[in-house]
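Before the break, one more example. Copy the sequence into your notebook; we will annotate it together after we see the structure.
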Amino acid sequence: MNIRKFAAAAAIFLMIAAFGTPDGFCADIAKIGTVNFEKIFNNSTTGKAARTQIKAEGQRMNADLEKLRNEIKELQNLLSQDGSAAVMNESARENKQWELNRKIEEVKALKNRFDRKIQELQMRLINTVRKEVLQIISDFGKKEGYLLVIEDINLVYAPQALDITDKVIELYNSQAKKRTKQ
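Here is what the structure looks like once it is written out:
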């Protein structure tokens, strides 16, 4: 009886070995990729253009602020000079002090407005780049058979071989080049 059980088990084992395991028990290898949006923004043509635009706008705004700051310094110098205090009557001095305070408040308000404008411009440009890149990643992932493509911002570890950022930058740059030709 033991020999029969042994022979039956051996026959089943040989059949499985000969015919292999059924396909249902085998998993396809999952193709996974990671991307770094910061690298894409910093190294892509469109990202660089966006950064240049943000920087130029910031410099223009800083120049406007600097002009107002210089006016404030002139008023402060005028009020702090000992000789002018004797020459300037009390009413004129109060008017100059009021003008100085008004300009200081104007600079503060303008700085806050400029900061908000820069943030809005930055977010708008970053979101535009991100939207375009997400479409490229989606198309690339489908074409290349990726099961999953994730952003590496919260990723603790992934082998460098999974990083497709450079390929995405290449595709994004070629897409931008086509747009500029049209």
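The domain at 2-181 is CATH 3.30.910.20 (Protein Binding, DinI Protein; Chain A). The helical segments are 2-19, 37-43, 45-80, 82-87, 90-144, 165-181. Try to locate both features in your own notes.
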